Amino acid sequence: MKRLLLIAALLAAPPAMAAATAEQEAAAERLLSGWATSPLLASIERFASRSAALEPAFESLCAKPADAKRLAGARAAWQSAYLAWMPVSSFNWGPTALRRTGRQLAFRPARAELITAAITADAGRKADEWDKVGVPAKGFAAIEALLYKQPKSLAEPAACAYLVRLGKEAGDEAKGLAADWRTFADELKHAGEPRAKAYPKASAAVGDVVNLLIAATTELGEKTFGKIAKQKTDSVLGAASGNGRALVAAQWQGLAEVVIGKDGGLAAYLDTQYEKPVLARQLRDAIAGGKGAIAALPANLAAARPAQLDKARAAVARLQDLLENPAAQALDLTVSFNEADGD
């Protein structure tokens, strides 16, 4: 909740940066315009496309719930959509924040007793009952629970109808998010122009992206990796499916596409516009280090050893530190919030 409110505040608040030079502002406009198209909008379009496959895959399974191939197809559709969500999840900005997409679809852990209650009430087929279902019984974690922990329950029509309804909600939300983001991405492309709606200065938007990167690295390091040893297995990301490493790798790749990107990303911007070649190299090294540390984790994060988790957490913290300190200082940016502050 706190993160959502603070992102909304970022959009409304005056820039917390000193005035950039004309050359820096022009470079910020180019950087932001590139980000708006790829990776930001591109990742959301991919998420929408993959999420659209959930409902038909679940309907196919429900036609023959005991069919192993159909179950595998439903699981593959879920994995594909969830993997596509992870890069999007790091940038809770604009429509993603305003629509509260993360809370709707990515709340975890799922609450088994609430899923059972929703199925008992036939919420998948009764609109009035569906409206009563809370987020702990919805989204990707709830789908994972049904497909991996309770697949035999899908022989019950009410349970399968609930799975289909979960898929429909995810597909509908992703479709709406993509539509809203097309408009927002166009606004970002015009940041700095006289009639700019979202950002009169592109450099302010770049500063907001840095704040989002800081929040994402804090959440990944402190919450995803930092709490695994203390969590029950059901609370660990992707534990039921054994898909946790792939999910965090997808999230890290989303961060990498902004930090170093195909055109150099934030690192190149700091190098060329703020004369920070050493920082640019450190950012590239941090991205590579994080990728390696994540790849060294077991596929199921619940099976990770403390030393592996510590290494991954330290690698993420390295990027966070570079963003919070030298990068923010170079941009004369006030770090607006930190995910570790709490929900």
Automatic annotation (TrEMBL):
Residues 1-18 form the signal peptide. InterPro entries: Imelysin-like (IPR018976), Imelysin-like_IPPA (IPR034984), Imelysin_sf (IPR038352). The keyword Signal applies. Residues 42-328 form the Imelysin-like domain. CDD domains: Imelysin-like_IPPA. Keywords: Signal. One of its GO terms (cellular component) is cell envelope. It is found in: Cell envelope. This is Imelysin-like domain-containing protein.
